[in-house]
Amino acid sequence: MIKSSKLFLFLLLASPLFVQAQQLNEEFIDWNADRPLAWDDYKCKPDRSSDAAATTTTYLGIEYKFASDNTFSYKIACRFSKNKSWGLYRNDHILGHEQGHFDITEIFARKLNKVTSEYKFNKRTYQKDLEKIYNEVTQEKEDFQNQYDEETDYSRNKIKQAEWLKKIKVTLDEYQAYAYYDHGGQFLTSAQQKNSSGTNKALRKKHRIRH
């Protein structure tokens, strides 16, 4: 089972992103292919009135800032909440299903990076434009998460569960070129975007996954 939260922020001046590092380390885990979830990460007390075996809470956040040189930049985060996630029945199979939810959030963090990086900055409409982009991506994420639970019957259908984990891995690989979003990016004007198109193509080629 998945619970998802949104974080859409716009800053008028450059400032520290999200919350203090210490708080992040205590409550949140950034998605990392080399750091899968463990049951010890699930700190919340289980809801015994729920029919769910476990609940994984993830955050897909994006923050914008306006710098003193009139440039706009963004930063994306995909995080797991330790304090809002719980596991009532703890085994490897259920943990694999919950990891799938976190991986799906990462897929849409990469999609959000892709769509945002392609946005042509418009000073008059950027706030509405960017919020629309964010809401569309997060709604697609929610639909994908729900489909995952429905088709796997919340991990009980082991054949479908295995199929979905393969599908999630393949989709992560497809968006590998957009996985490097933690350093942020800048919105480009139409002219800048045209000039940088060659660079972007080279970047995607560099990070292309071969099967």
Query: Helix segment count?
Result: 5
- Compute the average pLDDT: 81
What separation lies between the terminal Cα atoms?
A: 31 Å
Number of domains: 1
Estimate what percentage of residues fall within beta strands.
15-25%
Low-confidence stretches: 10-22, 196-211
> What is the strand tally?
6
Main sheet summary:
6 strands, mixed
Structure description:
There is one protein chain. The chain has five helices and six strands. The protein has 211 residues and is α+β, with helices and mostly antiparallel strands. The protein has one domain (2-206). Strands 1, 2, 3, 4, 5 and 6 form a six-stranded mixed beta sheet that branches. The chain is elongated and about 50 Å long. The model is unreliable at 10-22 and 196-211 (pLDDT under 50).
